[in-house]
Amino acid sequence: MNAERICLIEDDEIMGGALALRFELEGLDCDWHQTGRAALAALRKQAYGAVVSDIALPDMSGETLYLALLESAAAPPFIFMTGHGAVDQAVRLLKRGAVDYLLKPFEPDLLLGKLKELVSRQVPGRTDADTLGISPAMRALEELLPRLAQSQASVLITGESGVGKERVAQKLHKLQGATRPFVAANCGAFTETLLEAELFGHEKGAFTGAHRTKRGLFEQAEGGTLFLDEIGDMPLTMQIKVLRAIQEHQITRIGGESPIAVDFRLVTATHQDLKARVEQGLFREDLYYRINVIQIRVPPLRERKDDILWLATRFLEQAARRGDERRLVLAPAAERALLDHPWPGNVRELKHLLERAQVLATGPLLTPELLFGETSPANSPAPRDTLGDYLAGHEREYILRALESQGWQIQETANLLGISRKNLWEKMKRLEIRRNEDRE
What we know:
Helicase, Ruva Protein, domain 3
């Protein structure tokens, strides 16, 4: 089976061509069929990583096609899309094992995210946890991490609270060798005394309540990764002790006399501007340069909107796998609300909102009201564009991308889109597409 080959079943020439083009541009091989019978024949002949199928096909329904496959053999993962959805049909298909049910018009990035997630699960050695996101920023970060894993240099991860800095640190650690320990501490969650005991450990009887010897995190991370989160909140006196431990690769437990050698990969994280804190005298300059050998910035969620719906779907699927039998789906209005939200709490806020909505939901659809409560944007003005204008705008963008990918060669672009040369010229004329136009 080719996990990266997608079977697309869509009789609408414009939408089918646009989706097929997008899949190809994103590196997913795609076989596009415009009838149910043609798709059924292909699905019985070849194994696909996933199927994207319209419900209303000219010769049969997508549901009928799916059930026919289930009767003869196990069907590949199915994602249904339709412009005339019904809740009972969505529930029926999800109960029979369909991955999702999308109502048109939907965000193309949502569909793409679902497909890439399905593909990643079927590639040997890949798991859900392997993917940080589908946005260009997170893809670039994922491409960087394998190179960093080959080094033992200290890494500083910056970014706002809730963006997923620890998850990036865990991914880096996993690339170095999952059998080694990953030890984490939030430097802002302890008092100075407790933080010292947590990091350095203590000998039995070192202080009141020290009934036994305890190894600190420096020792526990031996041969693996020590992740110090929110290091910008560490008190200055502790910074001196941590700097000495990093420089000398040895520590002394509280109440101890003999130094203990330690060996670990140091990864730190902060939501603060450490350089500014150095200038303010709140963070040691020598420690700053020691931990800031390589710096990674994790962008806030509002700067990577491609990840919003992808993450939301992923969280819902994780909840279903944990034992919640309900397969919850975001309503189109909820998707728009998620995309319009500024996300001051980033990924953490998104996860908490979805957890709340799952508890309150009484049906399979999650609405804006379930997500945001009384502050829901559900009462926002209706879209100003007609459906025709909306589709034309998306069609124009896809055709432009296709033309650019083919160097504005009309015949090659027409072949890529699956339409005739004459049809492409007519569309370019109707949509006022010109080669030298300024797209900025």
